[in-house]
């Protein structure tokens, strides 16, 4: 799905940057100007322009702090505008994460801001991509579900303490593996954006990057120190003045992590299917996503093996296809049938329209020629499943319910956040 | 004392059968192997070379190609368009070389310290962190940006810096664009003579324009693309190190065999590659 993003100043409509997903041709300058013009016209009449639909695309506008305008143009997949709004929110908070809120609220030197914003491109581009959007649309962090990870908790805690910090975590292939209680206490959006930042780092690097936390510390920068222990497995810690990157590398890395080398390797080799070991997955399931909306964690799996002789085997769907089916099912369910759950930190009007249903829906399904989808919305959990078309219609409900029950009980959803007193 | 006129190390050794045993620990199937901080290249114990560590810092204005150069030398995908580096990013590459005279093999661990130029101006801790205990400093200029070349004098003269104990190398980026170079070969030569600093020219990506005006960016970090640059850099590092240890008297930092040219850019390729 092609997407274009345009960022301008609210006063004067000076273009700050524009990005387009994948190999899509960027928007022409005149098109960018027009997108701003419509919005400005509305503003002059005291109207806030939120969104519009054209023949084949959707356009969403947002003005942040009266200073920055973001416009998103996406292909129309019939879903609610809520999701476009969420992406715009993530884009703005990415800018906050790298530059701090102050420099975005009071624009001084536009030329300089435009240059400074270039540091945001890798994360912003990743938000416009189609491949991994589940964490961003659900405002949660994608986690790796392997029980072995628990044994890395103590080494992580002591490493982070040694760095004179309380915020630290380990990412494995871009997904969160273990984290300190304080890290789990960050908002879903913060954890998600930090994961994307870490994912953008070269896999043979150690780094020291100034970051602001969009909710916890939007005005005071911290230093995010990240070291790749193995290629694809990286430990990160949020620090203030100490320690230096050199100190971390030379004094703290080997002493804390070398004893756990084998365990780290095991985690890195964990299967891409990302299913908790104890859970039996029905062979008719092609892909699923489960979100804990309270802890802001999600597990996504679009690469479930097709079992020999199983029903799914007859009509194999590619991983990309499964991913886009699941994403589109999510987007068309949440915001229309299910209510949206935002991070409690998020204060903006989300663009959510009152549900057209007189009651609150708990389950939803969809049938297509080559697949079926089922979703469940419960207290703290949401499950979205894509089934093979061969699974009988009456079975998908029961299978989904049982699947969710077993997922709920898994260790991965134990609340590790620091208890708030 | 050895003659170093033709260089300290064997430049084509990496292609030989002997060299392949070592190269295979850092290159596999034409692709660079990537190592985390707890990992090392695996080389058979009976031929284990001496490991040498180098911290290499990069200096140059924003957009000159620091990150792209590091990406090339360490085997990471090069950025297609300019994204400013958001802080300090320090990446590691391993490279084996064989000395010409003694036949001794070294495995060099090169750790590049790259920081975005603009971010380094905003935060005080970045320059000191990169400077601390650096063994070498790479001064980057771009062949297609004259001001980046003129900046070099300023950077080398910077009184707040002390380069007396580090190797200095100037690196010319975007060499693929040298047909429209904004710097003449005479200027380059004079510069090298004045400062007695070696020059390394690199092509990090190939940018070509198609008929439709679309710009295609191709990365070039195959073994044969990077080996010459890594060899040159490692040669300079080892020479500097040996001089410090008193094992080598002097080294021809500026290649003197370069003949004066009639001051045009077309000779650039012939003289400096
Ligand atoms: N044609 C060509 N382009 C290059 C070459 N090296 C770098 N570039 C381009 O130059 C631009 C800037 O490169 P970077 O490596 O990101 O610049 P930098 O020095 O790290 O910049 P800062 O991080 O902002 O300080 C990118 O668009 C690269 O594609 C090269 O050898 N040839
Ligand atoms: Mg850079």
From TrEMBL, chain A:
The keyword Iron does not apply. Keywords: Cytoplasm, Cytoskeleton. InterPro entries: FUZ/MON1/HPS1_longin_1, FUZ/MON1/HPS1_longin_2, FUZ/MON1/HPS1_longin_3, Fuzzy. Residues 4-127 form the FUZ/MON1/HPS1 first Longin domain. Residues 284-411 form the FUZ/MON1/HPS1 third Longin domain. One of its GO terms (cellular component) is cytoskeleton. GO terms for biological process: non-motile cilium assembly; vesicle-mediated transport. It is found in: Cytoplasm, Cytoskeleton. Its main location: cytoplasm. Pfam families: Fuz_longin_1, Fuz_longin_2, Fuz_longin_3. Residues 163-250 form the FUZ/MON1/HPS1 second Longin domain. PANTHER family: INTRACELLULAR TRAFFIC PROTEIN-RELATED, PROTEIN FUZZY HOMOLOG. Belongs to the fuzzy family. This is Protein fuzzy-like. It comes from Holothuria leucospilota (Black long sea cucumber).
UniProtKB/TrEMBL annotation, chain B:
It holds the Pfam family Ras. One of its GO terms (molecular function) is GTP binding. Its main location: cytoplasm. Keywords: Cell projection, Cilium, Cilium biogenesis/degradation, Cytoplasm, Cytoskeleton, Exocytosis, GTP-binding, Nucleotide-binding, Protein transport, Transport. InterPro entries: P-loop_NTPase, RSG1, Small_GTPase. It is found in: Cytoplasm, Cytoskeleton, Cilium basal body. GO terms for biological process: cell projection organization; exocytosis; protein transport. SUPFAM superfamilies: P-loop containing nucleoside triphosphate hydrolases (SSF52540). Belongs to the small GTPase superfamily. Rab family. This is Ciliogenesis and planar polarity effector 2. It comes from Holothuria leucospilota (Black long sea cucumber).
């Amino acid at each position: 799905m092609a997407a274009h993003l345009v960022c301008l100043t609210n006063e004067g409509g000076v273009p700050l940057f524009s990005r387009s997903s994948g190999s899509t041709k960027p928007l022409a300058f005149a098109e960018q100007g027009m997108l701003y013009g419509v919005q400005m016209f509305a503003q002059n009449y005291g109207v806030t322009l939120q969104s519009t639909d054209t023949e084949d695309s959707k356009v969403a506008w947002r003005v942040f702090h009266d200073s920055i305008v973001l416009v998103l143009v996406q292909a129309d997949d019939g879903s609610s505008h809520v999701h476009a709004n969420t992406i715009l929110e993530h884009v703005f908070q990415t800018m906050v994460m790298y530059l701090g809120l102050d420099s975005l609220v009071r624009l001084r030197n536009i030329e300089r801001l435009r240059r400074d914003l270039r540091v945001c491109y890798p994360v912003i581009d990743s938000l416009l991509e189609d491949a991994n959007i589940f964490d961003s649309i659900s405002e949660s962090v994608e986690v790796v579900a392997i029980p072995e990870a628990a044994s890395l908790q103590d080494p992580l805690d002591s490493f982070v303490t040694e760095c004179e910090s309380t915020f630290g975590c380990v990412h494995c292939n871009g997904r969160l593996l273990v984290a300190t209680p304080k890290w789990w206490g960050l908002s879903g959006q913060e954890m998600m954006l930090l994961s994307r930042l870490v994912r953008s780092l070269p896999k043979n690097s150690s780094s020291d990057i100034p970051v602001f936390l969009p909710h916890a510390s939007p005005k005071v920068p911290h230093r995010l120190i990240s070291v790749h222990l193995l290629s694809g497995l990286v430990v990160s810690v949020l620090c203030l003045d100490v320690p230096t990157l050199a100190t971390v590398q030379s004094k703290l890395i080997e002493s804390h992590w070398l004893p756990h080398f084998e365990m780290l390797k095991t985690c890195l080799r964990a299967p891409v299917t990302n299913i908790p070991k104890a859970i039996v997955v029905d062979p008719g399931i092609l892909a699923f996503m489960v979100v804990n909306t309270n802890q802001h964690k999600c597990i996504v799996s679009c690469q479930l093996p097709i079992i020999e002789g199983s029903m799914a085997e007859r009509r194999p769907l590619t991983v990309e296809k499964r991913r886009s089916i699941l994403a589109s099912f999510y987007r068309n369910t949440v915001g229309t049938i299910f209510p949206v759950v935002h991070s409690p930190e998020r204060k903006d009007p989300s663009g959510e329209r009152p549900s057209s249903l007189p009651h609150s829906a708990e389950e939803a399904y969809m049938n297509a020629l080559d697949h079926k989808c089922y979703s469940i919305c419960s207290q703290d959990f949401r499950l979205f499943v894509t089934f093979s078309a061969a699974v009988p219609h009456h079975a998908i409900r029961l299978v989904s319910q049982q699947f969710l029950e077993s997922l709920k009980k898994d260790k991965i959803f134990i609340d590790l956040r620091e208890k708030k007193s | 004392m050895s003659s170093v006129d033709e260089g300290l190390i064997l430049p084509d050794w990496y292609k030989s059968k002997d060299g392949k045993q070592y190269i295979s620990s850092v290159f596999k199937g034409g692709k660079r192997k990537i190592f985390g901080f707890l990992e090392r290249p695996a080389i058979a114990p009976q031929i284990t070379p001496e490991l040498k560590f180098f911290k290499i810092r990069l200096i140059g204005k924003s957009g000159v190609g620091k990150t792209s150069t590091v990406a090339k030398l360490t085997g990471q995908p090069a950025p297609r368009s300019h994204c400013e580096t958001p802080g300090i990013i320090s990446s590691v590459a391993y490279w084996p070389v064989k000395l010409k005279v003694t036949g001794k093999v070294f495995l060099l661990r090169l750790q590049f310290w790259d920081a975005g130029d603009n971010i380094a101006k905003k935060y005080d801790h970045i320059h000191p962190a990169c400077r601390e205990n650096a063994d070498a400093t790479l001064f980057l200029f771009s062949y297609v940006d004259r001001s980046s070349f003129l900046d070099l004098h300023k950077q080398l003269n910077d009184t707040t810096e002390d380069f007396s104990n580090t190797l200095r190398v100037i690196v010319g980026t975007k060499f693929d664009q040298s047909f429209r170079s904004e710097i003449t070969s005479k200027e380059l030569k004079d510069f090298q003579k004045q400062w007695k600093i070696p020059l390394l020219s690199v092509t990090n990506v190939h940018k070509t324009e198609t008929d439709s005006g679309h710009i295609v960016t191709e990365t070039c970090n195959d073994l044969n693309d990077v080996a010459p640059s890594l060899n040159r850099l490692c040669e300079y590092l080892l020479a500097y190190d040996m001089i410090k240890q008193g094992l080598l008297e002097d080294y021809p930092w500026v290649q003197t065999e370069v003949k004066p040219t009639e001051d045009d850019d077309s000779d650039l390729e012939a003289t400096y590659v």
